[in-house]
Design brief:
Elements (H helix, E strand, L loop, with lengths): L12 H19 L5 E5 L3 H13 L4 E5 L9 H5 L9 E4 L2 E4 L14 H18 L2
Parallel strand pairs: 1-2
Antiparallel strand pairs: 3-4
Helix pairs in contact: 1-2
Length: 133
């Protein structure tokens, strides 16, 4: 049995994404014979997993249900709307300002591209490393 330490977080993010994508495909599509997934979202790791589900199962086959939570542990929405320099991407409509996905992190304005997924994976690893100390 492997001892838990910071070393368990020394992974290749690309290989981990592929491993998780294969797990989603095998579990949901093959083993469970389902065509999609329903995911409860509180802004944490589940939100990152939902992004992978969308990439594997197609957007119209994943339903996310937002659950109330005071303060997310892993705020994917904040990360998706924050530029590398720390500024937030936003737009204003009817006098109200809304945060938006950073254009460089998306392929279609609504889903993370490779850059966005790498940033999300990196931030998740940093969070996990901090929890292990």
């Amino acid at each position: 049995m492997m001892e838990f330490s910071k070393d368990v977080l020394k992974i290749d993010p690309h290989k981990e994404i592929e491993r998780i994508n294969s797990f989603i495909t095998k579990t949901i599509l093959i083993d469970m014979h389902k065509r999609g997934a329903v995911i409860g979202l509180i802004g944490g790791i589940d939100s990152a997993l939902s992004a992978l589900c969308v990439s594997v199962l197609e957007p119209e086959k994943v339903l996310g249900i937002i659950l109330p939570e005071k303060e997310p542990v892993y705020d994917l929405a904040r990360m998706e709307s924050t530029f590398a320099d720390g500024k937030r991407s936003s737009f204003t409509k009817d006098g109200k300002t809304y945060h938006s996905l950073v254009p460089d992190y998306t392929r279609d304005g609504g889903h993370l591209n490779e850059t966005g997924r790498e940033i999300a994976a990196e931030q998740l690893l940093i969070l996990m490393a901090g929890l292990s100390t």
